[in-house]
Every structure is written in structure tokens, then in C-alpha cells.
Amino acid sequence: MSATTQTRPRTQASVPPPRPGQRRARMRIGITRWLFVIPAALFVAVFFGYPVVKNIIMSFQDYTTKTFFTGEAPWVGLGNYIQVFQSSVFATSVVNTALFTAGSIILQFVIGLALALFFRRHFPLSGFLRGLLLLPWLLPLIASSAVWKWLLDQDSGALNQLLGVVGIAPVPWLVSPSLALIAVIGVNVWLGIPFNTTILYSGLQSVPPELYEAGALDGATGFKAFWYITWPSIRSVVSVVIVLGVVYTLKVVDIILGLTGGGPANSTQTLATNAYHQSFINFQFGIGAAVSNVLIVVSFVFAMVYIAISRKAVDE
Amino acid sequence: MKQRFPSPSRRTRALVGAVAVLATIPLVLTGCSGSGSASSGGSKALTIEDYYDATYNPVYKQCAKEVDATVTINHVAGAGLISKVLQQASSRTLPDVLMLDNPDVQQIAASGALSDLSDYGLSAEGDVPGVKAASTYKGKLYGLQSNTNSIALYYNKKLLADAGVQPPKTWDELKAAAKKLTSGSTYGFAMSNINTYEGTWQFLPFFWSNGGDEKDIATPEAAQALQLVEDLQNDGSMSKSSINWAQADVNSQFLAGKAAMMINGPWQLPALNAKKGLEFDSVPIPTRTGSETVAPLGGEAFTVPQTGDKDKMQLAAKFVGCLHSEKTQKALAEVSGNVPTNLEAGAAWASDHPQVASFVTTVKTARARTGELGPDWPKAATKIYTAVQLALTGKADPEAALKQAQSQSQ
Predict the structure, then answer these.
(1) Which residues from B are below 8 Å from A71, CB to CB?
(2) Coil, strand or helix at B263
(3) Domain locations in chain A?
(4) In terms of domains, do B201 and B63 share one?
(5) Residues near B178 by Cβ (< 8 Å), separated by ≥ 6?
(6) What is the mean pLDDT of residues B158-187?
(7) How far apart are CA B126 and CA B118, in angstroms?
(8) Of A197, B133, B147, B409, which sits most exposed with the smallest number of CB within 10 A?
């Protein structure tokens, strides 16, 4: 592969200067290539490019309810960003976003991998149970967050009643500022396990069984087999699951809004809910856009990591 | 194969260029739209937009008959109304008659989307003064409210009688009563302290009655009010979950007998009356010294948006005038459980409908949320519920919580 890249300049250099007819033919080939690209480029431009560009422009404007009727959005330069960075809620949001994302990803991944390994052994009803595992994914997010809100209620929630049987005093899951974020992470983990299990399970399916047979002859069984055979074989799948998980988790809004609305006292406010709040509750679309641009930059970094990893995986 | 394509960096650079050029196309397209406004001159068809439900349709149809118009009624889900209105404002497709929650009227009026109702000969004369203030922006009347409401202290008659407690009038009485009524799984008192404008709305009667002011919430008077709510929680008379409850949740607690007293509005009356075996009544919300309660005004205003069709706006104004007539005010009050806005009609209504009496009393001295700050009210409202949440979660004592919330830039 690297050999061909090295030889390319030489082959290009050895081509004699093109004659007029040849140039026209090459141009036609060039246009044809572009025609293939245009549909995809158009799609990307309309559905991804425009909103992103619009969002960036909006973050430099004083974009409020007035703008919708008059169309006037005065340019404020970095004003929105300065206001955002100075607010105490922003600092809280950054910390919460980091904790929420890290906590969710680690737990989702560990539990997801454990379940995927568990389901690899065949036992009665394993297929059915694996299907059942997808259930959280099939429920509308706002419905499942409403149910979780009932389950986690301090006075009459099912979880606290269950703990009461064992003699544990009611836990203020969604009410205490120090517990609310943990509770929200817990619900998000519940929601993310199906994704992790499904992808990791399919990764595990592609590990050739001969490797284990050969490994067993050399004494690699149990944890050793996992560490020296399974893990290296699914490493590329693992990195994809984690990077995609990070991007999905960063932008979570509905679960948090459904459970706590960012409260109590902003203890579950993340960048995503903060942006939502600025734009659609306070109707300060410029400031909301500034917050979401910060989020976009963070997601973009992880998206680049994803592209780098998937490219490396293809090359391998 | 690979050699036939240009190097990746050149390819991406070209692609980025193409995307950048193409990205301008939608911008140009949106620039074109919106300039042509649909006008069907002389038509008698009016469109109405609100966040009510179908039970209001007969009242609308009656008024349509009276002004000789036909109506298309569009009910939108409550939370989505403002975003819908903003969309319609930018695409110039606003309805002919638009209902707005009263604290939103000034903000939408400030954008220029509404027309001055006095141009059509309409006035809010004889209405509760606070209601008129909520619909007035820079001296012009942009909305008319047929009904208004506020909040009061509901109590469970049976639970109070069993405990030998009289409905409280002062804060000390409220604290004592709530403590006495708390037993087993029943809390003495319930209110919504959620981190939304609903939480602010429920805290306002304590805050305003004691001399709190939204311009600067970090005052000793406001701290006293917040201390009361914190005491109620720390005494165990109010559930710690109140910081997560919307007003509907508070009502569920009361209906289930898990709260002996609650703060809520007259719009809960249909649900309360439907509950068999529940005997309840309400009194104005207690104040520190037993003085008059200053509560916030609720209810929705009908407005006539700038649609560009002068004849239709005229007809829409006539329709709004009909909705504001005393007869329709009563018809709407029957449907909603709220109070007619006209002072005389309200007084008459209270004598016929004893369940609403405490609200009629409260409304007379109630204030509009946008009365002082106008379109800037939402910022103050955010500060107020932030302070309540900080105090009730124990993150700060009332005084520090108010100071922290007041200094918060957002």
C-alpha cells in the first residue's frame, strides 16, 4: 500500500504533457466524476451544511423572538460567547456533561460487553432473551423517562419501596443534587446497553472459533483467551462503539428533560440541555446557538477520531 | 484503481469548496420565500389558534355566528405554542386570532407581530387592572383576556376537621397547621417548586405579599418568604420531591389524599370535583401578617396578529370583542373553571360559584408578572426559581441563594 503511494509521483511525472484532445477527454472524465458526487454533496449541504452554517452565524447575532417577525438580527460579534463563558451555569454544564458522558460510556460498555460475552454461549431461550434486551431501544425516550421518573420518586417510587423492604430509608434519587446526576446516568446506561451489546455481540461473532481451539491447545483458556484472542480481535469494533457512544451521549436532551429538567438547582444541566433551555425556553437563540456550537466542536473532535479509527481499520 | 483518483487532500479540498458553494443555495431560497403573503380579500373565514381543547369550540362558534364569520380552530399543545407562533411569524402565516398566555403577550408584541386593539375601538375598561397591564405594551393594548385566574390554598375539609385545624391565614398558622396535618404518608402541605416558570408562579404569592420585588430579588423580604418554604420542607410538612413537581403533580398528591393542603388554581376544579368522596375548599394564600395576598395573574389573552389583510384583521377584532363580552366571559368561565375578567361580572360569578370565591378575591389584588419588567420578565422568573431550588436542595441558605441567583448572568 505504502509502496504504491511512493511510486505515484514518479508515474505522474513520466506522463508527457497532454495534447489538446487528450485534455478535453480528461475534462469530460472530471465532470463525470463531479456528477457522481453532486447528489451526495447536495444532500450534505442542505441537511447538514446549511443548519451548521446558520447555527454558526446565529451565534454571532442577537437572535430573539423579534427576529422571527422583523428578520433583523443585530451582529454582536463574540458577545454571545463571552456571556456564555462567564455564566456559572455554563461551567456546571461542562462538568456535568463530562461526568455524564464518561459515566454513561464506561458503564454501558462494561455491562454491554459482559452481556455480549454471556450471550455467546448458547443456552435455551438465549435468542429470545437477546431480543428482549433490545426493548429499552424500542420505547419512545420521553415515555421511558416518564416511567423512570415514577420509579425513582422519593415517596411513592417503586425502587424506594423495594429498598424499604430490605430496610433502607427512602433515597432521594431525583431530589438530591448529589444523587440526581447519578440517577440520570443510571437511566442512560439502561438505555445504552442494547446498543453496546448488539454491536459487540456481532463483533464477537466474527472471531473465528479456530483461534480459540488453537489457543486452548497452547493453554489460553478463560480470561487468558479473552485477553489474548477476543480483545485483540474486536478492538476495532470496541473503538467504534465507544466513539459513537460518546457522540450519542453528548447530545442527550430528552432523558434529562424528562427526568429532572436539568434540576435540582442545575445539578443535571448539561451543555445540550443548557442550549435547549436558552433557545426554546428563554428564546435567546443566539446564546443557545453559541452553547450548541461548543457542543458541536466537542462532538466534531470525536467524529474525527471515529473517522481516523475506521480508516485505520479498513487499512488493516 | 487508487492512482486514478486525485490525492485525498486535494479531493477533500475540492469537496469542501463545492459544499460551501452549494450551502448558499438554501439561503437564497429562503430569502425568496415569505415575501408573498396570501390574501383572500373580503373572505369571512377566520383562523383561531390556541392551546385549549375542543370543549372551547362551542363558545368560538357562538361568537363566529354573532360576527357573521366562519372559523377554523387550531388547538396546539401548550408547550409548543410559542415556537409555532415564531415559525408562523417568520413565514408570514400567523392566524387571524391568536391566543397567548398573558406573560408572553408583551414579548410577542415587542416583536411587532401584534396589532393595537384600540385601533378597532376595543378596550379593557372594567377589567381587573393587573390583567389590563399584562396586555399593554408601551401604552398600547395588544390583547384582551376573557378569563383570568390565580392560585389559592386548597384544603381537604375532612383531614382538617379530623385534626381540628382551621384554614390558615398567616405564615405561622400555615406552618403549625401543616405540621399538625402531617401523619403517615400524608404531608400537611404541597406546592410546586420545580425549576420552570411554574415553580416561580407558585412561589410568587409568598414573595410578592411580603414585599419582594423582581427587579432585585436579593432582599430581606424575599429571604423571609423563601425561609418559609424551606421551613415547611425541613419540618417534614412538605415533601422534598416538591422541587420536581409540576402543578399537575401537586394536584395528583392532593387527589390521592397524600397532601392535606395545596397551592393550585381554579383550572383544577373539574378534576377535583370529579373525585368522589373528596371534600375540599380554598382560601387566599396566607401572608406573613395576615394582610392582603398579592398573587400572580394567570389566564390567556386573545390577540389580533399583523397578517397584512386589513379587512380580516377588522373582522378578527370584532370576534375578539365578542369573546371579551360579559356574556362570553361567563360562558368561557363555565368551561375553564376560571374567573371572568370584568370586575362586576367576576363579583357576580363569585356569589353563584362559591368554589371560585377565593380566586375572585385573590384576583382583585393580584399582579401581572410582566407588569414591572415587561418582556424582561422571563429572566427574573429564571432567577426566582433558581433561588428556590438552591435553597430547597440545601445548596445555600435563603439569603445566599437569592444573592447567588440575582447575580447570575443567565
Answers:
(1) 90
(2) strand
(3) 88-315
(4) no
(5) B187, B188, B189, B232, B235, B237, B238, B260, B261
(6) 95
(7) 15
(8) B409
Query: Which domain covers residue B125, as residue numbers?
Result: 45-149+298-364
pLDDT digits (tens, 9 = 90+) for B338-353: 999 999 999 999 888 9
Task: Tell me whether strands B70-75 and B140-141 are parallel, antiparallel or unpaired.
Answer: unpaired
For the stretch A133-150, pLDDT in tens is: 888 888 888 889 999 999
- Chain A contacts of B90, Cβ < 8 Å? 68-69, 71
| Dihedral angle, C-alpha A237, A239, A244, A247, nearest 10 ° | 180
Chain A positions touching B243 (Cβ under 8 A) are 175, 263-264
Instruction: Judge whether B286 and B168 are in contact, CB under 8 Å.
Output: yes
Query: Rounded CA gap, A117 and A119, in Å?
Result: 6
Q: Is B156 helix (H, G, I), strand (E, B) or coil?
A: strand
* CATH superfamily of the A88-315 domain: MetI-like (1.10.3720.10)
The ipTM (two decimal places) reads 0.80
Residues B269 and B178 in one domain: yes
Which member of A84, A90, A261 has the closest CB to residue B194? A261
Domain CATH code at residue B279: 3.40.190.10
Nearest partner of B204 among B257, B162, B263, B251, judged by Cα: B263
The amino acid at A243 = V
Nearest alpha carbon to residue B402 among B410, B394, B385, B393: B385
